[in-house]
Each structure stands twice: as C-alpha cells, then as structure tokens.
Amino acid sequence: MTSLLYGCESWILYRHLVHKMDQFHMCCLCKVAGIKWQDTVLNTEVSRICGIQGIETFLLQTQFHWIGHVIQMSNDRIPKQVFFGQLAAGKRFPGGPIRHYKDSLEENLKKCGFQPKSLCEESLDCDSCCSQCKEASRIVLSEMKRAAHKQSALPSMNVAV
Questions:
Q1: Are residue 78 and residue 121 in the same domain, yes or no?
Q2: How many domains does the structure of the chain reveal?
Q3: Other beta carbons less than 10 A from residue 102's beta carbon
Q4: Are residues 45 and 78 in the same domain?
Q5: 71 and 111 co-located in one domain
Q6: What is the pLDDT along the chain (161 residues), one digit of tens a residue?
Q7: Is-above-0.85 flag for pTM?
Q8: 95 belongs to a structural domain
Q9: Alpha helices in the chain (DSSP H)
Q10: Chain-centre distance of CA 107, in angstroms?
Q11: Are residues 64 and 143 in the same domain?
C-alpha cells in the first residue's frame, strides 16, 4: 500500500484511476485472504473479511489530512502560497479546461458534506467522518445496484390458469 500510494496527497483523483487502483487493491486483498476468483466473493465481503476500507476512502483521508496541514502552516511557507495563490497572467491551453487540484478537492469536500468556502475557518478534522460517510455510502450503493440487478434478472412467473 505504501509503495502504491506514495505521494497520493497531491494527486488529482480521476474516477477511472481510482477504479483501477480499487481493482488492484481488491486483487491483492483476495490473494492475501486466500480467496480465488472462482469463489465469486463480493468486494464488500472481501473488505469486511480483511477489515480494510476501500482505496478511495484511504485516498480521501490522506488528501484531507495534507490539506489540514497546509491550512495550519504559516503564510510564508511555500506549500501554502502555492495552494492559495493565483496566477496573475498566463495563457489557457486550447481545448477543455484542465482539472486542477483545488477543483478535485472541492468536489471531494462536497461529496463528504463539507463546504469548501469554510475551508479556512474550520480545521479539517473530517478524516474519520468523511471516511465513514464515503465507505458506508459506497457499500450501500453497491448493494442497491446488486439488488436491482437481481430483481431484473429474475424471470417473471406468468402462470396461466
């Protein structure tokens, strides 16, 4: 985990990259737990068996932990100047806008129920709250999708009398 996620505090979390890392993480957990792919054990069950939260939750925790440190830094420190600084002049690249770290952070804060505008006033001690929120919502969402899929897969029993 440490080699895989080295420096993840500063990553921009794209959905497809998180999905690939989650697949790799589940594959590793299955190998550690001795679960074969033929056993058809659900990812939520693998997480419960191993007692480990999902990779997205871990990524969000480390990102929020780092931002909490940056906010508490003095104003003359370079990481804080870069985080809160704006470019005075410059050119935009042609094409669509590039997703920036701040954009990704704001989106993740909103997903966890925090207001990005109040980032400076309140200390970012939301690691455990956000991790529980994200992990629980991810498990509930996957179980709802699974139930809907099972419901649609069942053949309707039309009995003619």
A1: yes
A2: 2
A3: 14
A4: no
A5: yes
A6: 788 888 888 888 888 888 999 889 988 889 888 988 788 888 888 888 888 888 888 888 888 888 888 888 898 998 888 887 766 676 766 776 677 788 788 888 877 777 766 665 555 555 555 555 555 566 666 677 777 777 776 665 555 54
A7: no
A8: no
A9: 15-33, 43-50, 55-72, 78-84, 101-111, 127-153
A10: 11
A11: yes
